[in-house]
Amino acid sequence: MRKLWLLILLVALLLCSGCWDKKEINELAIVTTFGIDREPSTGMYTAYYQVINPPALSSRQGGGSKASVYTYRFKEYSLGRFMQKTATMMPRLLFTSHLQCYILSEEVARQGIIDILNYLETTPEWRMNVYLFVTDSPLKDVMNSFTTLEKVPGRHATSLVRILSRGSFTGGVEPIRVKDIVTGMEFQLPTLIPMIHYRGKPADTTERMEQIDVSEQAPSFFADSAVFSKGRMVGHLDSDNKYYYHILNTRYRKFTETVQVGGSYIDVETNNVQVKRKWNRSANHLNIYIHADLRILNNTQNTNLSLQNIQLIEKAFNRVVADKSEKMAALGKRNNWDLLGLQDEGATADTWRQTSVKFSVTSDVTTTGNKSDPYTIEGKEG
């Protein structure tokens, strides 16, 4: 009986097909970043694929090439033709399961990305849960730039996202995944997408990686944000307005603000920011209440931190936050961007711009550092 069972198992093994769908790493072109540009005169798309060079990432690498990624560029008039076009140059099978991010040129973003979203949704090889960026620099330069500490540019971008995400309740500084654009199209509140700036020149050789000063060569992220409404970029917000958009809409709890007291500057960090809204719909009026706990990061005052002085810092912070919030709301009305999401809370397309919004800000200094009073020099002139 035992021999019969053994014979049956051997026959069953012969009938097994094994790992017929396995993929060897040496047969794959592993794409980490995908960029899309478009020529306005011809309508031709330009696609950029950043493909990992595995030997360059090995810690035991000896001589040979040092580029961590290679960038391939293709042109086509239709998005669906790129998969076939890659086979004309890439000697490996295109593999996008490890994709880190998409980068769109500003030209593509302003024309609208509905076609791109539909293409990604209907093509199983692409992913909707990866990060999305917009660049106002030439996409070719961005896709050929080097990054430091993280050798793979796509991983560099996602690492920055994770670091900045620590400051919010929602787990992200901005809703910047592709699927979030799709979700955002259901609302009147615009969606913010981080912008990439690149001030350097594209590298001609990997020796540029040996430079110490990377400020002028590496791309910078998150300084500004592209404003998307209904799947199309309609403008951009600078750093201050971007942060206050998140404070007022997405419960962003940590940011740094600078206030002035008696001619001296004090840097404070907010913690546990709380925002509440109270509508008076009959009067078409909205009160937004903001409260924050403050930690003093830098104090240039030449006076001791008394209770009265702390109250002056709190009042100065309250004024700054209220003023910047009002300016952001006014900017939205001028540009017809509902940056407070008033229409999603009951206001109509005709009345939201006439809604009166008042910001009431309170704060408490809860942390002053290891030494509350600054060092002073007795008898100092001036």
From TrEMBL:
<dbReference type="InterPro" id="IPR046953">
    <property type="entry name" value="Spore_GerAC-like_C"/>
</dbReference>
<dbReference type="Pfam" id="PF25198">
    <property type="entry name" value="Spore_GerAC_N"/>
</dbReference>
<keyword id="KW-0449">Lipoprotein</keyword>
<keyword id="KW-0732">Signal</keyword>
<dbReference type="Pfam" id="PF05504">
    <property type="entry name" value="Spore_GerAC"/>
</dbReference>
<protein>
    <submittedName>
        <fullName>Ger(X)C family spore germination protein</fullName>
    </submittedName>
</protein>
<feature type="domain" description="Spore germination protein N-terminal">
    <location>
        <begin position="21"/>
        <end position="196"/>
    </location>
</feature>
<dbReference type="InterPro" id="IPR057336">
    <property type="entry name" value="GerAC_N"/>
</dbReference>
<dbReference type="InterPro" id="IPR008844">
    <property type="entry name" value="Spore_GerAC-like"/>
</dbReference>
<keyword id="KW-0472">Membrane</keyword>
<keyword id="KW-0564">Palmitate</keyword>
<dbReference type="InterPro" id="IPR038501">
    <property type="entry name" value="Spore_GerAC_C_sf"/>
</dbReference>
<keyword id="KW-0309">Germination</keyword>
<comment type="similarity">
    <text>Belongs to the GerABKC lipoprotein family.</text>
</comment>
<feature type="domain" description="Spore germination GerAC-like C-terminal">
    <location>
        <begin position="225"/>
        <end position="363"/>
    </location>
</feature>
